[in-house]
Write a structure and sequence with these properties.
The protein is an alpha+beta fold. It is about 20% helix and about 15% strand. Strands 3-4-5 form a 3-stranded antiparallel beta sheet, with no helix packed on it. Strands 1-2 form a two-stranded antiparallel ribbon. The radius of gyration is 18 Å and the shape is globular.
């Protein structure tokens, strides 16, 4: 048997394909269960609670919704490649990516190993795509602009 349970006859060649997911399609599917501004607010409140923020503000402007809290994203020190904390563990010794890496992986379930946190499935932040195509996250002197149409995020310090 070949990987994945495929029967391979003697002498046959096998090949592999990368297993991929359509980011925009996944966002669309997740949004079906996260519709409504109340759900979006709840998800952002839960994220602030998970980050142990003591304040949270929603500032509705003509050109933007600015959501602020007083917590900072955890940061492994690198914004490239895979997060080293997935192998070595974060400051709490939980093997999961820092917040900057985690937000770049929709559905990454980075909070699954932290029983004191609300988030479990890595899709709550997706609710912001109801109001923007490219959310911007600023924390700890770093800005990430998430762009699902390009399948990447831009960052600057």
């Amino acid at each position: 048997m070949a990987p994945g349970g495929t029967l391979v006859e003697a002498g046959e060649e096998t090949s592999t394909l990368d297993y991929e997911a359509d980011l925009c399609g996944n966002i669309e599917q997740a949004l079906k269960g996260l519709q409504g501004y109340g759900i979006m607010a709840l998800e952002l409140i839960q994220n602030a609670d998970d980050a142990r923020a003591s304040t949270l503000t929603f500032d509705s402007r003509v050109d933007a919704l600015v959501v602020r809290n007083d917590a900072e994203f955890s940061n492994c020190g690198s914004l490239t490649g895979r997060c080293a904390w997935e192998r070595t563990g974060d400051p709490l010794s939980i093997k999961r990516p820092c917040n900057f890496h985690a937000i770049s992986r929709m559905g990454g379930r980075s909070k699954i190993g932290a029983p004191d946190q609300i988030g479990r499935f890595g899709i709550g932040f997706v609710s912001v795509y109801q109001i923007t195509d490219t959310p911007i996250v600023r924390s700890a002197g770093t800005q990430l602009t998430l762009n699902p149409l390009r399948g990447c995020l831009g960052n600057r310090l």
